[in-house]
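This part of the workshop introduces the protein records we will be handling. As an example, a complete record with its sequence and its C-alpha cells follows.
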Amino acid sequence: MTGNHGAAGVFYGSSIHVHSAGVDEGRVASRWPRRFGVVPALADCRQRRQADEDLLAAVPAGSTVGSCQVLSGLGGVGKTQLAAEFADRAWRDGDVDLLMWVTARSRVAVLGAFSSAATDLTGVEAADPAEGAARFLSWLAEPHGRRWLIVLDDLTAPGDLAGLWPPRTAGGRVLVTTRRRDAVLAAQGRRIVDVGLFTPKEAHRYLGEKLGDDPALLDEPERLAADLGYLPLALAQAAAYLLDRDLTCAGYRRRFAERRRTLAELVPETEALPDDQTATIAVTWSLSIEAADRLSPAGQARPLLNLASFLDPNGIPLTVVVAAACDAYLRGTGPRPATEDLLDGLRNLRRLSLLTIEGDEVRVHALVQRATRDRLLPEQARTVAQTAANALARIWRSSYRTPTAEEGLRANAEALLGHSGELLWQPGAHPVLFHTGASLRDQGHVRAAVTYWSGLWATARRLLGPDHEHTRHVRHCLAGSRGLAGDHAGAVATYRELLLDDQRLHPADHADVLTTRGNLAYWQGLAGDHAGAATTLTGLLAEQLRVLGPDHEATLTTRHNLARMRAEAGDRPGAIAGYESLLPDQRRVLGHQHRQTIATRNNLAVLLAQAGEPTDLHLVLADCLRILGPHHPDTLATRCEVNASSHAADPAAHTALVRDCEEILGPDHPITLRARANLARSYGHAGDHAAAATAHEALAAAYRLVLGPDHPHTLTIRHNAAHWIEAAGDRAGAARAWERLLSDCTRVLGPDHPHTAIVEQRLGTLRVLPGLLDALREAGADVDGMLTDPLTYWRREHARTVHEFGPDDPLTRLVEARLAQLRADRGMR
C-alpha cells in the first residue's frame, strides 16, 4: 500500500483502486471529542453496585496506562449496564476524547464498526472492512495523545477478536462484556472482572424504587428477590410484569411457585420488556446453551445442564453429575462417555458462565435451571429425573459418607423431588425417596423426618394405594420417626395398625410381620412397658432365629432391643450379658462403623459405668463424632452419658449440650430432656440445691407434656425433684412432693414395686428426719455431706468401716447394704 496526499492505493489481484478521502482534513481534525456507536441508556432505577466501585478501582480516572477489563458473568447480571455507566461517566467527566461502543456479537460487526471509525477519523474509505479495521487499530497505536475508550459489548466468541484487540497504549482503555470465561480473554495483560448478582440489599432497594415504595405492592420484596436469585434482569422483568398486571410481590411469588407456569409466562411480552430490552431471561440464555453445546466435545453441554437443572443450585457434587451422565440418558446408543469428556462438557458450560465449578461442586443459578427444565418435553423430563435419582441412590448405597457429604446429597435429593413431582413414582416409589427420609432421620433431623414421611405417605396412598409394599414401607418409616421425635404413643399406634395390615396380607412368620412385631414391642417398651416389651421380644427372637437365621439384621436388631428393654426394666446384669454377646456378632456381620454396632457399644459402656466398671465411653464418643458427626442423635446421646459420668458437677458442660440438643433436635426430644436432667442434677452436685430443685420441677412439667404424667421417666424426674427440694432445706415442700409421688407410684406401679417402696421410705424418713439429723450431728456425723451426695458419702463410710472394723463386721455389712441400695437406686436418681 502506498499513500500520497490523503489517497491510498490497495492491490487486489491485478487491479489498482485509488480512493479519494473526499473530506476536509481540517474539519476532520477539529471534531473532538468523538463518539462512535450508541451507548445503551441506563436502566430505570439502576442501582449503584459494588461492581461499579470495583471497576473504577481497576481503571482509575485519569490513568495514563493502557488497560483492558473483561466484564464476565451470567447473562442478565448487568454487565452491559455496568459498562454503559462507566462509559457515560468517562464521557461526562471529560476523561476521554474518543468513546466507541461496539456490539461485538460477531467478527463482521467488529470489523464494520472499526472500519467505519477509521473512515471517519482518517477521511479514507476502505474498500474492505478488514483494511479499515487495520487502519483504525494503527491509528489507536499512534502517539497522537488522544484518550480513548472502546467498549466491546456482548462478545459471543473470543475468536471474533483475533487480530482485532485494540493496542495497549497510554491513555487507551478497553472494556469487554461477555458471558465467556475462556483463558484467552485473560491473556496479554487483560483482566477478567467477575460481575455477579445483586446483593440482597441492592435487590430490595431496586424493587423499592421500581415499585414506588408502595406498601401495597412491597409486601414480600425480600422473598421475591430471593426467589429470583437476585438476578438483576429477572428482577427488572418481574417488576414490569407485576406492574402491568396489578400484582403484589406476594402475588407474583404465588404464580412463580406454580410448577405448571413456565418462566416465559412470568415475564412481559417481548414488546413490553423494560429498559429497551429485546429478549426475555429465558431467551437470553438459549444462545449461550447452544454455543456451549457446540464446543468440543460437542453435544455434551446441553444434556449435562438438563441434568443439573433438577438438582441443588447451591452445590451439586461432581460425583453425582458424572454418575448420572454415564447413564443411558447421555449414552443413547453410543459408547459410554469418558469422564474427561463429561468434565469438559461441564467446563464448556462454565466458559459460557452458565454454571460455576468450585472444588468438587457445581453451582447453577436457579433461574437457569428453571429455563432449562421449561424446554424439556415430558418424556425428556421423566428420563432426566430418573437418571438423577438413580445416581443419587447409587452413591447413597455405595459407602458411608461424612455428615457434610450426607447433607449435600440430601439437599440435591430434596431439590430433585421438588422438581420431579410424580416422575419418581413410576412404577413405584424410587429408592431415592426412602434414602432422603432415612438421611433426615439418621442425621438427627427427626422432626423434619416426621414431616417428610407424612407427606410421602399421603402421596404413596394416592398414587400406589394403601396396600402397596412401598406405601407400607413409608408407614413404617413414619412410625419410627415419630418415636425418635419423642412421640412414643404415636409410634405404638401406627405400628399396631401396620401389624393388623401385615397379618392380613402375609402369613404369621413372614419377615414383614416379624419386623413389625419387633418395632411395636420396642416402642411399647420405650412408652413405659419395659417388662412386657422384654417378654414379647424374647418370644420374637426365637421365631426370627428359626425363620431368618442368627445373622439377619432384623434378628440382630431384636437382640439389641431385648437387651435395651432388660436394662430399662432394671435387669442390668441380663442387659450387660445381652450386649456383650451381641457386639462380636454385629462387628462380624454389620461392621465396626455400623450405627447399630456403635449403639451397642454405647449402651454397654453406660451400663458398665453404672455398675462401677471401667468403660470405653470416651472412645465411643470419639467414634460417634468421627463416623456419625456432631449432630447425630446417637452422638448427642453419648455426650449425655459422658457428661453424666465425667462432668457430674459441671453445669457449663451440660448447658452447652442442652443448647446443642435444643437447636438440633428440638426442646421436646427425649435426648434433649435427658440433657436437661443431667444439667439439673449438676446444679445439685455443684452445691446449688435450690437451682437443682427449680430445674427439676421445670423438667418434670416438660416430661408430663411430652411423655405423659404416668410415664416411668416422668415419675423418676419427680422423684429427683423431691430429693433436691428436700436437700435445699424445704422440708414442707419436699413432704408434699413425696406424698403426691407416693400416691401416683402406688397407682401406676403398684404398692409392692421397689420404686414405690423407695418413695415411701423417703417420706417416712423425712417425717422423723429433724430429730434424727440433730442426733447424728451431735454424734459427729457428716450430715450435710450425706444429704448432698449420699453415694459418695456411703462409699467413704464403707472404706472407713472396712479399715477400722474389718470387712466382716456387722457395721461394715450395714454400710455395704446401704451402698448397694443407693447403687440400685441410681437409675432412679
Notes: The CA atoms of residues 36 and 100 lie 5 Å apart.
